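User: tokens in, sequence out, please.
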């Protein structure tokens, strides 16, 4: 499953794959696999990405178009 939103979020933040991979403490290659969908993203990574971008997990995985966290 390709997660287009993680690529879009990264591009909107003007970050390279290398930069976001360093933030997540993973290799750039692993992150690239997540963006292309050639490897599933572990839930821990999804949580880190959601926390970093301050968005909901549902938005990140395409279940909603609302980026806001429900508090």
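Assistant: Sequence out:
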């Amino acid at each position: 499953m390709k997660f287009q939103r993680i690529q879009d979020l990264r591009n909107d933040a003007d970050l390279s794959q290398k930069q976001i991979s360093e933030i997540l403490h993973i290799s750039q290659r692993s992150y690239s696999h997540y963006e292309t969908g050639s490897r599933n993203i572990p839930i821990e990574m999804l949580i880190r990405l959601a926390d970093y971008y301050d968005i909901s997990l549902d938005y990140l995985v395409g279940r909603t178009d609302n980026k806001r966290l429900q508090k």
